[in-house]
Design a protein that fits this description.
alpha+beta; binds the ligand C[C@H](O)[C@H](O)[C@H]1CNC2=NC(N)=NC(=O)C2=N1; EC 4.2.1.96; lyase; Pterin_deHydtase; 4a-hydroxytetrahydrobiopterin dehydratase; PCD_sf
Length: 81
């Protein structure tokens, strides 16, 4: 997997790009993220095109800012790679 290897804080969102071998790998990752997000009751804004997944995290409940919940989900997502 290729990626920019870190989350950045852009416009009150944590953002990281992920690039996989193909769509199958990207979607398998998204499935793992979805299950983790549901367990944490915290959900990503994300886009997927073929092998690329971009994830943006913030907390709507706190007024669309980055909170500890976003950092926790970002860490959990990294642990899925
Ligand atoms: C009711 C439910 O707990 C809330 O809507 C949760 C669900 N998932 C969420 N996900 C994100 N990213 N931000 C939230 O504020 C949020 N709130």
């Amino acid at each position: 997997m290729q990626n920019n290897n870190m989350w950045t804080n852009e416009n009150n969102q944590l953002h990281r790009s992920f690039q996989f071998k193909d769509f199958r790998e990207a979607f398998a990752f998204m499935t793992r993220v979805a299950l983790t997000a549901e367990k944490m009751d915290h959900h990503p804004y994300w886009t997927n095109v073929y092998n690329k997944v971009d994830i943006y995290l913030n907390t709507h409940d706190a007024g669309n800012i980055v909170t500890a919940k976003d950092h926790a989900l970002a860490k959990a997502i990294d642990d899925l790679l």
